[in-house]
Design goal:
Helices cover 23% and strands 33% of the residues. It is α+β, with helices and mostly antiparallel strands. The strands form 2 sheets. It has a 4-stranded antiparallel beta sheet with strand order 2-5-1-6, with helices on one face. A two-stranded antiparallel sheet has the order 3-4. A hairpin with a 2-residue loop joins strand 3 and strand 4 (49-51). The radius of gyration is 16 Å and the shape is elongated.
């Protein structure tokens, strides 16, 4: 089992979710976050609003997947989030030690779905 964390541009969220759905990956947690990478301090135009400063609006996706879905999930995120410009984001893949479905008590891969 793996835990995938992706930080992407907010305007790419719908495309990424569509690509994940195409790969039959439905369980995603999305959070609005702020952060910076190499574009620190660079003004950015987002939906016709100029944003300046050291922290920019981003979206964080968190996805727990069984090993067979790691590659499809990463490919979906990459293809949905990529614009070719600085600030497209990052993907982190972590080992997931355990997952437990609270309602049924299932553990491991079956708990993820």
């Amino acid at each position: 089992m793996k835990y995938i964390i992706a930080i992407i541009q907010p305007d790419r969220l719908d495309d990424v979710l569509t690509k994940l759905e195409e790969k039959e990956i439905h369980l995603v947690t999305v959070t609005s976050v702020m952060g910076r990478g190499r574009q620190k301090g660079i003004s950015e135009v987002y939906r016709s609003h100029k944003e300046a400063g050291s922290l920019l609006k981003k979206v964080k996706l968190e996805i727990a997947v069984n090993d067979d879905f790691v590659k499809p999930a990463v490919e979906a995120i990459k293809s949905g989030a990529r614009t070719g410009h600085v600030g497209d984001g990052k993907i982190f893949i972590l080992d997931l030690q355990e997952a437990i479905r609270i309602r049924t008590g299932e553990k491991g891969g079956p708990a993820i779905g």
